[in-house]
Automatic annotation (TrEMBL), chain A:
Superkingdom in the source lineage: Archaea
Alphabetized Pfam families for the sequence: BPD_transp_2 (PF02653)
Membrane-spanning intervals of the chain: 35-54, 66-91, 111-132, 139-158, 195-215, 243-263, 283-307, 314-332
Principal localisation: membrane
PANTHER family according to UniProt: ABC TRANSPORTER ATP-BINDING PROTEIN, HIGH-AFFINITY BRANCHED-CHAIN AMINO ACID TRANSPORT SYSTEM PERMEASE
First and last residue of the signal peptide: none
Record keywords: Cell membrane, Membrane, Transmembrane, Transmembrane helix
InterPro entries hit by this protein: ABC_transp_permease, LivM-like
GO cellular component: plasma membrane
The name this protein goes by in its record: Leucine/isoleucine/valine transporter permease subunit
Single GO molecular function: branched-chain amino acid transmembrane transporter activity
Subcellular location(s) of the protein: Cell membrane
From TrEMBL, chain B:
Pfam families xrefs: BPD_transp_2
Compartmental location: Cell membrane
Alphabetical keyword list: Amino-acid transport, Cell membrane, Membrane, Transmembrane, Transmembrane helix, Transport
Entry protein name: Branched-chain amino acid transporter permease subunit LivH
Annotated GO CC locations: plasma membrane
Length: 367, 289
């Protein structure tokens, strides 16, 4: 557990506890928000052993929720925060996952080696896709990333590398790679589900802290500027394409990390990880949570996974999940984050707001 | 060799024309309302399933081909009025969340009502068997699909170019506010276009439902092909969507001759290449904005 403690200490310095912060309006996350994030993490950390004792199934869901929170976070960093509408994040997620699967099988189960490798592969894939795509803007960027991600999907699905290199199998094709064991690192055996949960929790927290830090840095401000007015930033003298490529690659690294955490946990890497429906679902998580806030999408990701898991028992789960999306988008336009903020700022008028939203809806439908 | 090439060409044209029916609605809806309609594949799927319902209960393929698109048109109207209308004027990204939600709902509804096994709409006796052109034998049904969808697409094309309604549609797409100011109820035009797109998608659903299989995954399967077509043709361009649909149909058919497993790779490479060289697509009016 020593490394976990160390990481927690690093984390405190990383998110700047005890530092003076600038005006709250400019920060991605206020100091209150940071505290809330730590409290949520603390509650999860305490809750996990309880869940493990009573209902191990909960630990499973929680870990998956965390992984998708991380994935949604990585997407929001470019999508909501930098305005790069990536519709191909499944490629980096899947690439990271497959990298982990292959590394664990062929080289080592040491998390300290495999997880950075997953991140690097995520960065490399993002850099490749981004290099071709960053010149396109808006919806065209989205479509380019979609096209490239689907290419990666087909390559993995048909096991093209094995055909080209004339070996029996590399990606395992349609079936994927089975029986991927869990990690171990510096003497800790993460084959315990509880420890694996803690590993995930700590890495998600660190990633969150790092990305919030980057978002609040001069680099983050520049990305915000590019989102708001790309041409202007170009005229001022910023190399806009390079900034976009860099942001996209950073995001890809975290998506790769999510893949590296997900595959050993599920013990299988299959082509579905790279399919466009994952990218689409991610965008849904983002909009559901409230894009551009970094923490909102994490909630959105966790919520979608939670709903999918909990509703899986119902025959009508797709209808319920779909209705949730429809209702949120119509009545809570700024997503969960927006709703939470408005409730926090003005708790008394919540009912009035709901009434108003309903009235607006009826008015608009009538035209 | 010539034989299989000819056969592939016919097959590609037929597939392209039916995909054009799906893509035409998608591109018109995007061009007019800036809506990226993920539910379009769901409407196509509804078309196939209602075709199945009508075909099996009334025993007539022709009635299915007539009634299913009408039912789906009504569903399309409900979707547009109840869920899209409140969102106009907001960031188009939210349409993704909305239509994705609707697509998932429709998939769930289909599984609930019809189950998840694969089915097929029975083709009429009139259209069974095959005809031969020189060395090539070709199923009558596929030929029928080719002719019908070509006639439909041709008619719509002329209507959009020549008729008053077509002019109104193009004008609304070009400058919504101006058309509104001229006293036209643009909201009705929007609903009309959405319903029209739904009907076309449903026709394609019935037509392909009798040659491909009808299953709950077909909506999400077709939507990505339709997107590729719309993007290659140029977002919002009707003409572009038709040419791109034929191109994609042929790529799929020829690709199946060379390397069946890799046709998708060809398609997405083509899409990426077009976007890199000309982001606005083959017939896109404006540069990327």
């Amino acid at each position: 557990m020593k490394s976990v403690m160390n990481l927690a200490a690093d984390l405190k310095t990383a998110i700047g506890i005890g530092e003076t912060t600038g005006p709250i309006g400019e920060q991605v996350l206020s100091s209150q928000g940071r505290l809330a994030a730590l409290v949520v993490a603390g509650v999860l950390a305490v809750f996990a052993p309880v869940a493990q004792a009573f209902e191990p199934f909960w630990l499973n869901i929680l870990t998956r929720m965390l992984v998708f929170a991380l994935l949604a976070l990585s997407l929001d960093f470019v999508f909501g925060y930098a305005g790069l509408l990536s519709f191909g994040h499944a490629a980096m997620f899947g690439a990271g996952g497959y990298a982990a699967a292959l590394a664990i099988r062929e080289v080592t189960t040491n998390a300290l080696v495999v997880l950075p490798a997953s991140m690097l592969v995520g960065v490399a894939v993002a850099a490749f896709i981004g290099w071709f795509s960053v010149r396109a803007k808006g919806i065209y960027f989205a479509m380019l990333t979609l096209a490239f991600a689907q290419m990666f999907y087909v390559i993995v699905f048909t096991d093209l590398p094995a055909t080209v290199l004339d070996v029996e199998t590399i990606t395992g094709g349609d079936d994927g790679l089975f029986g991927i064991p869990l990690y171990e690192a510096i003497g800790i055996d993460f084959t315990s589900r509880l420890l694996y949960f803690y590993l995930t929790l700590v890495l998600v927290l660190v990633s969150f802290a790092v990305l919030v830090r980057v978002a609040n840095s001069p680099f983050g401000r520049t990305m915000q500027g590019i989102r708001e007015n790309e041409e202007r930033m170009q005229f001022i003298g910023y190399d806009v394409q390079r900034y976009k490529l860099l942001a996209f690659s950073i995001s890809g690294g975290f998506a790769g990390l999510a893949g590296g955490l997900y595959v050993p946990f599920q013990s299988v890497a299959q082509p579905g990880l790279l399919h466009w429906t994952i990218s689409g679902e991610l965008v849904v998580m983002l909009l559901l949570g409230g894009m551009g806030t970094l923490w909102g999408p994490m909630l959105g990701g966790a919520l979608v996974i939670y709903l999918e898991e909990r509703l899986a028992g119902f025959a009508t789960w797709e209808i319920i999940l779909g209705s949730v999306f429809v209702v949120v988008v119509i009545f809570a336009p700024r997503g969960l984050a927006g709703t939470l903020i408005s409730i926090k700022n003005d708790p008394r008028n919540t009912i009035t707001h709901v009434k108003q939203a309903l009235r607006n809806y009826v008015e608009k439908v009538r035209g | 060799m010539i034989e299989s090439l000819l056969r592939a060409t016919l097959l590609g044209l037929q597939l392209g024309m039916t995909l054009a029916l799906v893509a035409a609605g998608l591109t018109l809806i995007f061009g007019m309302m800036d809506v990226i309609n993920f539910a379009h594949g769901a409407l196509y799927m509804f078309g196939a399933y209602f075709g199945l319902l009508v075909g099996e209960s009334l025993g007539s393929f022709w009635l299915a081909l007539l009634l299913a698109p009408l039912i789906v048109g009504l569903i399309g109207a409900a979707i547009e009025i109840l869920s899209l209308r409140p969102l106009y004027g907001r960031n188009p990204l939210y349409h993704i969340l909305l239509t994705f939600g609707i697509a998932i709902m429709v998939q769930g509804i289909v599984v609930q009502i019809w189950g998840s096994q694969s089915r097929r709409i029975p083709a009429p006796d009139l259209l069974t068997g095959s005809v031969s052109f020189g060395p090539v034998t070709y199923p009558v049904y596929w030929l029928f699909v080719l002719v019908l969808s070509t006639v439909l697409i041709g008619t719509i094309w002329i209507a959009i170019e020549r008729s008053d309604l077509g002019i109104l549609m193009r004008a609304s797409a070009h400058d919504t506010e101006m058309v509104d100011a001229l006293g036209v109820d643009v909201k009705k035009v929007f609903t009309g276009v959405f319903v029209f797109g739904s009907v076309l998608a449903a026709v394609a659903g019935v037509l392909l439902g009798a040659s491909r299989s009808v299953h709950p995954g077909m909506g999400f399967g077709v939507i990505i092909e339709a997107f590729v077509i719309v993007v290659i043709g140029g977002l919002g361009s009707f003409k572009g969507a038709i040419y791109a649909a034929l191109l994609i149909g042929l790529v799929i058919a020829y690709g199946a001759l060379i390397a069946p497993a890799l046709t998708d790779l060809f398609i997405f490479t083509l899409m990426a290449a077009v976007l890199i060289v000309k982001p606005s697509g083959l017939f896109g009016a404006t540069e990327a904005a």
